[in-house]
Write a sequence for this structure.
């Protein structure tokens, strides 16, 4: 369980940042540069077209990447949900176990008190029975300490789950921002592609 708590607490996730920009068309500077060289102008526009084609591949890849990252976020959410259910279930089990052990302890303590009042019993009988009761008390004490350790582990798990939920919210916000950034890049790509195609059409008529 300690390993599981460590696993949940280590779930600080981040999306992969977008590492490309949409190629700048810069038609004005190209026109100025090749004003008297239509063939060179058309060739320069083709270079821009190749850059935008690369951007189309970049956009496709980053959209696929985001889809996987969004699915991963849902997987983490489900994992945290299951961990929460498990922690709640274990708390109930351990609490019940602790109550049963304490009840047994009281029974043994009552038996010990009864034995202490029975002065008429000979020493050998008293010692034998006392040893038996002490053995029970020792075992119950060990079991209670073990339950307490497990209860602390559940408490650690609950803390780790809370930290995991905070990290998940941050991760989801990152995926949402990435989706916005991709949409903006996509719109810019389409806008520049349309400008380029219109210019290439015009450039074809140049002599």
């Amino acid at each position: 369980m300690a390993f599981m708590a460590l696993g949940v607490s280590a779930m600080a996730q981040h999306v992969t940042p977008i590492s490309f920009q949409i190629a700048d068309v810069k038609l004005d500077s190209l026109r100025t540069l090749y004003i008297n060289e239509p063939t060179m102008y058309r060739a320069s526009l083709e270079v821009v077209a190749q850059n935008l084609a690369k951007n189309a591949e970049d956009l496709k890849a980053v959209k696929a990447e985001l889809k996987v990252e969004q699915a991963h976020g849902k997987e983490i959410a489900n994992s945290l949900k299951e961990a929460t259910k498990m922690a709640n279930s274990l708390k109930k089990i351990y609490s019940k176990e602790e109550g049963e052990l304490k009840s047994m302890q009281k029974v043994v303590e009552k038996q010990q008190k009864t034995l202490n009042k029975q002065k008429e019993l000979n020493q050998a009988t008293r010692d034998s029975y006392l040893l038996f009761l002490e053995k029970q008390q020792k075992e119950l004490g060990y079991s209670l300490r073990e339950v307490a350790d497990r209860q602390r582990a559940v408490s650690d798990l609950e803390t780790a789950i809370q930290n995991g939920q905070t990290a998940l919210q941050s991760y989801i916000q990152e995926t949402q921002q990435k989706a916005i950034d991709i949409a903006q890049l996509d719109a810019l790509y389409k806008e520049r592609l349309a400008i380029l195609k219109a210019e290439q059409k015009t450039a074809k008529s140049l002599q």
The mean pLDDT is 91. Helices lie at 2-9, 27-33, 38-117, 123-204. The chain is about 85% helix and 0% strand. The radius of gyration is 36 Å.
